[in-house]
């Protein structure tokens, strides 16, 4: 629409400058009217008319008004497919006030519109939207009435839009066209700037959402409107000085000369800038030099130090009048991605240096926490991120098929020291490069980088998920003659546009074009390497479901493992909430419906069968719950083996490979109740893998493995200082709780940030020395201790045969007693035999144990339970079940 701005009255300004009391009598410089809350919602033929919350979406509104049941229940994802095929209109009526209309400019701001919509106010079309990742605003002063105003947002079906754009793109295809059938999803998601996994993924349902997923408000102002403040601390190595680059985005009604003051009082740092604010929307950059006589406390990743911050105050003045006042947190830290020659290798290193210190990244990958983002509560977000830190992780990768997360996500990561590898939202596809597509992406990228760059938790920007690999290894069967054209599109989007904007907006962090990639080597090869999975460069994603995961030799000894994993089923209580009795079998329609990965259910059992006897109870329900359990045992052991391999490979280069400095398994969380690679179920319950992660990511970790019948124990340390350690290896018989013998290594100085062999012996000699032991009758536990004999790090175990072949395993007949004392609930276990994979389950009582899924080689054990909601000893005792491997045999 045409934008009419009444010229700012200089008389009025003079009044402001001269007579301070006039400002208050004339009202505030700025007014805000939230338009969140109840709107009206209708479908195209108006057969449905209902109230709807904003922020929200159509699915949530229909569910809240009971037009539909829980979309996650059973097969409802198929039943409710019509929702995203219809067009929907959100309408609200609000009262305009004279106070708003007298302001010189009024903006109508949408923080997030999902996705294809036409917006009108009082019957006049303001504009159209095509990108859920952008903020949209419209200047509306002259369209407002003093009385009722009608605001309408008409959404076009995202599925039809994607298909329409795909049809219009007739010159060549932009694959993939559709997801695999097993995902039961929608097609052409790459043609719409929307959460890519909302059209289905191999771990999630197809719920293409529609709605106003973020807030809506009116902002009215006379002089200027604050839009965003971001700050980047930059460190000058040559003079050891910090400076803060602050960027202020404001919308100015009419050009004026003013003054901006930046200060960090706690650091005795303050500067004032004379400014000419130009009419319109512009960024203003300021550099605040940090007082060199003050020591700046640094932000550290979890496990490496604290996460202190300072308050930055920005104040804007017109004459003596305060027209702007903002405070924001500032965290000081530096980050580098180091890609330099590696001794003994033709490749390049790939590791992160934070505040000058080399840091091993350990963590997982984050997917959207709900199909309907409006249903992600602050409590659920905090719970997931606390579980991340509690499992000794220091990083999450916000994966490129989801959404740029909400501010709170990054605030909590800042607070907990969780580093974030931030993808841009492009995944597993080729993308179009028409002008309007590129333009909307450019705006998206600029807005997101400006919104997020002040967060120290974000340590890297990454252009896309797996699109370099998709091109290089030809996932989409593109004829060789056309490959160059697709590479050109790839470079246009990620290098010439996204990378260019990021580098301009943010000189403080590395940018990587894709993941996996060969990094600097990919750039050498024209941005698409011949083999982006080359373990000697960059990062690697690696999956194999058929190879034996207990054999570490099957894993690539990569520089950095950013994705790897195995599926498992969630617990029975989680499935029960969305299923009925006829669904509770491993071969039910429900069980195959929820599996979105081809052959996934079979792969889990096949992998489990390599080492475990598969459940085969005559009781169908027990057989089902036992199967769920065995998939979790399999997953936990597989990811443990692989992660321990990466952690112990950090100090070695073997045949040019190694020097591994990152292990991020796929995936942390779930979007619904279904089998997936996650370690935390939908709803927050920890799978066995998450309990294992707490151990295998421990700062000090003993790792055992065999190489040609020789047993090695490595000591892995993420500490910043050396520590003298010895390994204590205990041999147990499967048939007896009294251990057979114990071997102890010499003390060894383990330097901080390293992995070293601390114990080495041939398995045959070890067993012979211990007497009455064979590979089939015995197993090993081990731990590290310091020179005073105090244990450092967790206990660990090493099986000398598959548990399915173990001789002497007995029913442990575990008894459990729940108690409560001042510090919470405890469960005391008593076992009559060695018990592998002891699993405590409290059904749907929210909370977590201090340890679970463990190997019990003692008669007694005490585990604490952290309840997330009020509960009692009686309730816990009633709900508690204990499963061990023998129970499923
Ligand atoms: C109106 O649309 C709904 C949802 O798409 C559909 O189920 C219904 O049959 C339509 N009603 C009429 C009268 O066309
Ligand atoms: C949605 O709107 C488009 C464009 O106006 C129209 O072609 C389509 O039929 C509408 N869908 C429904 C279900 O009415
Ligand atoms: C860093 O400090 C040196 C020495 O004071 C100065 O010459 C250089 O310009 C500074 N670099 C930046 C990027 O400010
Ligand atoms: C720097 O801080 C010191 C004391 O911490 C203070 O005396 C001095 O004035 C400050 N310098 C500037 C330029 O603010
Ligand atoms: C401010 O800095 C940003 C990022 O470095 C840059 O994109 C922008 O053009 C600068 N704006 C001004 C007014 O200098
Ligand atoms: C399950 O048990 C039955 C009878 O006890 C047996 O016939 C069948 O082979 C077993 N199946 C598996 C997969 O072990
Ligand atoms: C509560 O019980 C646990 C486990 O027995 C014990 O470690 C803890 O010290 C007890 N706390 C109090 C306050 O008694
Ligand atoms: C467990 O209980 C069963 C049945 O009472 C018994 O046969 C078995 O010996 C017990 N296990 C152990 C290790 O005592
Ligand atoms: C183990 O617990 C039992 C009771 O459950 C108790 O009698 C016994 O003394 C405990 N043993 C040890 C070593 O703590």
Automatic annotation (TrEMBL):
Beta-mannosidase Ig-fold domain segment(s): 809-887
Cellular compartment(s): Lysosome
Chief location bin: other
Pathways per UniProt: Glycan metabolism; N-glycan degradation
MF-aspect GO terms: beta-mannosidase activity
Gene Ontology CC terms: lysosome
InterPro entries: Beta-gal/glucu_dom_sf (IPR036156), Beta-mannosidase-like_N2 (IPR054593), Beta-mannosidase_GH2 (IPR050887), Beta-mannosidase_Ig (IPR041625), Galactose-bd-like_sf (IPR008979), GH (IPR017853), Glyco_hydro_2_cat (IPR006103), Ig-like_fold (IPR013783)
Top-level division of the source organism's lineage: Eukaryota
Keywords from the named record: Disulfide bond, Glycoprotein, Glycosidase, Hydrolase, Lysosome, Signal
Reactions catalysed: Hydrolysis of terminal, non-reducing beta-D-mannose residues in beta-D-mannosides
Domain Beta-mannosidase-like galactose-binding: 39-214
Extent of the signal sequence: 1-24
Protein's UniProt keywords contain Metal-binding: no
Domain spans labelled Mannosidase Ig/CBM-like: 710-805
Enzyme Commission designation: 3.2.1.25
Entries under Pfam families matching the protein: Glyco_hydro_2_C, Glyco_hydro_2_N2, Ig_mannosidase, Mannosidase_ig
Keyword Disulfide bond tagged: yes
Glycoside hydrolase family 2 catalytic domain location: 352-518
Protein's GO biological process: carbohydrate metabolic process; glycoprotein catabolic process
Subunit structure comment from the entry: Monomer.
Family: Belongs to the glycosyl hydrolase 2 family.
Function, in words: Exoglycosidase that cleaves the single beta-linked mannose residue from the non-reducing end of all N-linked glycoprotein oligosaccharides.
This protein's name: Beta-mannosidase
């Amino acid at each position: 629409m045409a934008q009419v701005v009444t010229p700012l009255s200089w008389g009025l300004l003079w009044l402001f400058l001269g007579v301070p009391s006039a400002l208050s009598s004339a009202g505030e410089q700025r007014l805000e009217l939230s338009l969140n809350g109840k709107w009206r919602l209708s479908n195209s033929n108006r057969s449905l008319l209902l109230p709807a919350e904003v922020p929200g979406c159509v699915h949530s509104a229909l569910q809240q008004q009971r037009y539909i049941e829980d979309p996650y229940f059973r097969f409802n994802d198929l039943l409710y497919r019509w929702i995203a095929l219809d067009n929907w209109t959100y309408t609200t009526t609000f009262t305009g006030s004279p106070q708003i209309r007298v302001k010189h400019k009024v903006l109508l701001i949408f923080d997030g519109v999902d996705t294809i919509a036409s917006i009108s106010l009082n019957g006049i079309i303001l504009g159209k939207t095509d990108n859920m990742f952008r903020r949209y605003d419209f200047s509306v002063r002259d369209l407002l009435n003093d009385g009722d105003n009608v605001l309408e947002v008409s959404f076009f079906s995202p599925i039809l839009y994607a298909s329409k754009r795909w049809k219009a793109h007739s010159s060549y295809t932009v694959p993939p066209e559709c997801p695999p059938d097993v995902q039961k999803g929608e097609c052409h998601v790459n043609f719409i700037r929307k959460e890519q996994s909302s059209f289905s993924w191999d771990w999630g349902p197809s719920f293409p959402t529609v709605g106003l997923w973020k807030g809506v408000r009116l902002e009215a102002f006379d002089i200027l409107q604050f839009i965003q403040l971001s700050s980047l601390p930059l460190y000058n190595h040559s003079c050891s000085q910090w400076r803060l680059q602050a960027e202020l985005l404001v919308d100015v009604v009419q050009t004026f000369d003013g003054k901006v003051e930046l200060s960090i009082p706690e650091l005795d740092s303050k500067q004032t800038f004379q400014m000419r604010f130009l009419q319109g929307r512009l960024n203003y950059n300021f550099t605040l030099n940090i007082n060199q006589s003050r020591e700046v406390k640094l932000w550290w990743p979890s496990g490496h130090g604290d996460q202190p911050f300072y308050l930055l105050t920005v104040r804007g003045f017109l004459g003596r009048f305060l027209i702007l006042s903002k405070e924001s947190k500032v965290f000081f830290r530096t980050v580098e991605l180091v890609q330099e020659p590696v001794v003994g290798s033709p490749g390049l290193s790939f590791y992160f240096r934070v505040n000058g210190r080399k840091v091993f990244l350990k963590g997982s990958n984050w997917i959207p926490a709900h199909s309907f983002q409006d249903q992600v509560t602050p409590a659920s977000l905090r719970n997931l991120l606390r579980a991340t830190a509690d499992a000794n992780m220091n990083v999450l990768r916000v994966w490129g098929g989801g959404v740029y997360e909400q501010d709170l996500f990054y605030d909590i990561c800042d607070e907990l020291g969780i580093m974030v590898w931030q993808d841009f939202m492009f995944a597993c596809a080729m993308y179009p490069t028409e002008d309007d597509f590129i333009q909307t992406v450019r705006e998206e990228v600029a807005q997101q980088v400006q919104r997020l760059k002040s967060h120290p938790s974000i340590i890297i920007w990454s252009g896309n998920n797996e699109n370099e690999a998709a091109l290089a290894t030809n996932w989409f069967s593109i004829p060789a003659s056309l490959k160059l054209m697709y590479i050109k599109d790839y470079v246009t989007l990620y290098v010439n546009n996204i990378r260019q904007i990021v580098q301009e907006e943010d000189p403080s962090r590395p940018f990587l074009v894709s993941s996996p990639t060969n990094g600097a080597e990919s750039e050498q090869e024209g941005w698409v390497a011949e083999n982006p999975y080359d373990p000697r460069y960059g990062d690697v994603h690696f999956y194999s479901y058929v190879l034996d995961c207990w054999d570490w030799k099957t894993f690539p000894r990569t520089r950095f493992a950013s994705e790897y994993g195995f599926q498992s089923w969630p617990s029975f209580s989680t499935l029960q909430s969305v299923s009925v009795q006829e669904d509770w079998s491993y071969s039910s329609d429900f069980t195959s419906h929820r599996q979105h990965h081809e052959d996934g259910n079979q792969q889990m059992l096949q992998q489990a069968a390599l080492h475990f006897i598969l459940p085969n109870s005559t009781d169908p329900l027990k057989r089902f719950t036992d199967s769920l359990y065995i998939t979790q045992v399999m997953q936990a052991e597989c990811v443990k083996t692989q992660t321990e391999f990466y952690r112990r490979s950090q100090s070695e280069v073997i045949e040019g490979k190694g020097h591994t400095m990152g292990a991020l398994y796929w995936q942390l969380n779930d979007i619904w109740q279904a089998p997936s690679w996650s370690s935390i179920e939908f709803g927050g319950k920890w799978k066995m893998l998450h309990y294992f992660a707490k151990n295998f990511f421990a700062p000090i970790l003993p790792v055992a493995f065999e190489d040609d019948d020789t047993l090695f124990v490595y000591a892995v340390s993420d500490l910043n200082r050396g520590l003298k350690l010895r390994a204590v290896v205990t041999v147990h018989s499967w048939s007896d709780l009294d251990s057979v013998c114990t071997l102890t290594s010499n003390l060894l100085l383990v330097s901080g940030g390293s992995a070293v062999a601390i114990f080495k012996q041939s398995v045959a000699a070890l067993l012979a020395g211990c007497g009455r032991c064979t590979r089939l009758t015995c197993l090993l536990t081990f731990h590290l201790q310091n020179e005073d004999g105090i244990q450092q790090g967790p206990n660990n175990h090493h099986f000398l045969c598959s548990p399915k072949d173990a001789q002497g395993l007995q029913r442990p007949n575990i008894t459990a007693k729940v108690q409560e004392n001042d510090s919470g609930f405890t469960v005391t276990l008593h076992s009559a035999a060695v018990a592998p994979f002891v699993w405590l389950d409290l059904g749907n009582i929210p909370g977590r144990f201090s340890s679970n899924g463990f190997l019990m080689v003692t008669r007694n054990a005490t585990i604490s339970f952290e309840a997330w909601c009020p509960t009692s000893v009686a309730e816990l005792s009633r709900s508690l079940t204990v499963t061990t491997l023998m129970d499923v045999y």
